[in-house]
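User: structure tokens for this one?
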Amino acid sequence: MNNYAITAAIVCALSSAALAQTEVKVSADISTSTTWTNNNTYNLQKQIYVLPGATLTIQAGTIIASDTNIGRALAVTKGAQIIAQGTAQSPIIFTSKADVATWTNGNPRTGTWREAINEWGNLTIMGAGYISEDVPGGTRVNTKSPNANNVGTMEGLVPSSATDTKVLYGGGNDDDDSGSLGYCPFRHGGRRIGGHNELQRLVARRPPPRTRIDHIEIMNNVDDGIEIWGGAVNLKHFAIWYIGDDSLDVDQGWRGKAQFGLIVQGYSADAAQGSGLGDNCCETDGAENSDYQPVTSASIYNLTVIGEPTSGDHGTAWRDNARVQYRNCIFMDLGERLVAFDNVDGDGGQGYGFGGTLSWANTWTTNYNVFSTVNAPSNPQDFYKAQTSGKLAEITNSVTYNNNNSAAYTEADARGVFAAANNNVKQATAMPITAISRSSIVIKGGKPTTRVTSLNPLPVGDALTSAGFAPVDGFFSQANYRGAFAPGISWLTGWTASEAFGITPKSAYLDVDKGLASSVKGSPVLSGTGTLASNSPFSFNITNGAASTGGLLILGSGRIDLPLFGGTLIPNADAGTITVVTDGNGAVNLAGTTPSLPPGLAFYMQAWLIDANGPALFTATNGVFAKQL
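Assistant:
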């Protein structure tokens, strides 16, 4: 009966996505609100602009696949919007036709990783938030203090005339609404998902949790991965793979939050560092010139940063008065320093301490709410909202591993990163993620390097718990673990290139709650085998529960990521539910063989146990679903 129920539920949930057959060539700028539908694919013919007043809506499941040419790109101007909300089952894929050619029968859940970049441009979103761009010389000179007239010209975009405003970013509205992005993988790009101020306060007027950009993946980009210049955009659930320059690059006064980010360094082409071979994992610039305001002041939780140990550069690089808090993170396999005091960015900025600003050392010891008076706004508390506790610069509640450069921790030690109060684990004795495999060493860009060929980033060991976690503020999730993933749960499943290319696992189990208020009522534990791969045996076992306890097993081909009864994850139940009852020993045992499944299937299980003897509090241990009965 159990085997039948499981098999029937899986079969009912399955659908095989195929590439739409109708190609639409996009050759004109978008001047009126337009919808791209998932029964078409869209082939960018040149640099396409979404013009002010227009909204480009892209349906879930739509594929934007352009001919191989870096001039084919999409830019959203100030005053325009993009609404691109995919799902785990139906992501919106931005890629090249060369990538699509590797898919099996047009199925986007398949494909082959290739050493390839510059196959199209990428997405740039220009917002109207405050920036600190100095713009030396010329007819436009920005002020050192925040000003709504301070704007910049987007790098990589070519103005049609001296008065062309399509290429300008910046302004005086940190709440500018440029749209929303969700479940969008970007593959084989030629510029960046972002430019200077392109990712600013997206979905600015959504109710809590007000995630601005959620579930974004960048795979193989020639330049930086995600680049944010100014504004106050927030990021959640982002994965950045094999970037040719810096994976996460912020500048010009970004004042935002980020949580649940995976960074995997490597190479995307046989080109120099900065153009094909990865540089810094996180590069943080405070302002274009260090005495300008606003200055970058950000709070980042739950990063899993996997460097490249033979040629990669720093885990975190700091310049021009940047103030960033890294909390609940994993930093491993770094090529050089965990903390790198670069001081200046090489573009003319004078670095920390210039003009009466805080010195590098004092930035690490100054409270978050001590605002600089140098060229400051009259209302600094309104500009600097991302940090709500601690010091201006921090690495806390994090774990480091296998960072073997002789200077890996020199600057971190000097800044007190590993003081006991910061709850960091220095050079853990065991790897804090489940599994990683690398290629053999090859020469790329004139340097020896390797590539991560398979990765299970789920936490183990020192990453399973953390002494602190994010505040309740409507954006952050309360995740009491280190790194980007909850124990037993991967948000990469179902929609990413990493899964389609076989780099990360193609399916996942959800865990069962591990604790009850009373030990008399049992303390259920989940175990199991198998990965729910096609035609594979599996088991799903609950032990140590209360005897003769009713429960519910929920099955789904996707997830609902919502705060619910103290937890954050639950299957979407589109495959149904199964009533279960523990036996006299408090156990439930399901076993069987999965049917033949389409490639790339994500499938989830979760169990609730209901104590028949009375109410019981199910805790949210390890971030799994919990319920008060």
